Amino acid sequence: MTDIKQKCLRILLNNRRKIKDFQYTVPSHDSYPYQWLWDSCFHAITLTHFNIADAKKEILSLLSKQFDNGLIPHMIYWDKTRPTNFPIIKWGKEDTSSITQPPMIAYAVWTIYQKDQNKSFVKKVYPSLYHFYRYLLTERDPHENHLVGIMNPDESGEDNSPRFDLPLDLPPVQNLKENTKKRLKLVAQNVECKFDAPFCMRNFFWVKDVPFNAIMVTNLRLLAKLAEKLGSDEDAAYFTKEADAISFAMRRLMLGGGIFYSTYGEAYEKIKVKTWAIFTPLFAKILSQKEAEKLVSNHLLNKNEFWTKFPVPATSLDEPSFDPSGFWRGPTWIGVNWFIYKGLLNYGFSDIAKQIKKSSLELLQKSGFREYFDPFTGEGRGAHNFTWGCLVVDLDAP
């Protein structure tokens, strides 16, 4: 583990960028040359194991481009001068994208606070966090059903996940080019509707995604704790109440046959595709102990679904869409394992969590810090020197 930790630090330092007064980390120097929202939250969490000041800088650079309406963009194009093969996407803005990503930032700030107990940093960033989560709670829930909607698959952080095939009108078996074409068309439509979330979602793409909402629940609870630390009891009560409301809405509108499914459209139709998303309610502590035990035994440990040689694949093996080399359609991601590990610990499944940690370390030792891995062979694929692998240093955290 010491060797892995040293490699993590080396990758984080090599992927560090400084521009003007800001410091940030790119996920991969050769494939992802900009700053991404949930990636930077992962970076901040990881950096707390090395240098708290650097973790704070990661958050501050992320918040520096927050929109007036509270949205934190999922991409910041700090430096466009470096040569890259990353596609140019026309978001209608020059320096950032116009969409967001899973709201992990309160978790990252809470992790920082837990390490140094410095309220001044919390006080500095709290207004930005407040407006971001308020934006999600209002603009992304126009029907006030207490589920946060996403307006583009990319907002999930899982661009081509089979969870989005149905709303994109795509078949289970497809190629990345077909999927990308659909998502770029959606960007163009959103540019036309000026990224007005309620209008764009109603007319083009409206998914209430399980991971996004589960992450929202956990982060709202931590945001409430941050508010308490600053003496804002009213805010703390508000965010706790909203977390409870989303938890209840998820049970009411997403749960079916013991599994939480993402929904789409105004009718909240369930997208009955099994991906790693079904385990994220563990991360948010939404399940009862009995429900959690059933989910883990019936699905996570099921060798015909998710328990491969190198777990946990992003998509269940028995889905028509499963592809072990298909980006978010089958490979194992260390970030996914981090969420599931944390969720398992919430319910006392420490032995299974340890197996996932062990497998994650084996993947890094076998194939290096790759973007994702074949769940059967452990072969690394995608970007090199990818920072998500560094989340293994946080798998010892309580």
Structural class: mainly alpha
In what order do the strands lie side by side in the largest sheet? 5-8-9
How many separate structural domains? 1
Please tally the β strands and state the result.
Answer: 11
Strand share of the residues? 5-15%
Mean pLDDT: 96
The assigned CATH architecture is Alpha/alpha barrel
CATH class: Mainly Alpha
Number of helices: 14
Radius of gyration: 19 Å
- The SSE order reads HEEEHHEHHHHHEHHEEEEHHHHEE
Percent helix among the residues? 40-55%
**In CATH terms, what is the fold-level topology?**
Glycosyltransferase
The main β sheet shows up as: 3 strands, antiparallel
Globally, the shape reads globular
Descriptive overview:
It is a single chain. The protein has 398 residues and is mainly alpha-helical. The chain is built from 14 helices and eleven strands. The protein has one domain: Alpha/alpha barrel (Glycosyltransferase). It has helices spanning 2-14, 37-47, 52-63, 105-116, 119-139, 165-168, 176-192, 197-203, 210-229, 233-253, 280-283, 289-300, 334-346, 350-367; strands at residues 16-19, 22-25, 35-36, 75-76, 207-208, 255-256, 259-260, 263-264, 269-270, 372-373, 380-381. Strands 5-8-9 form a three-stranded antiparallel β-sheet. It has a two-stranded antiparallel ribbon with strand order 1-2. The two termini are 17 Å apart.
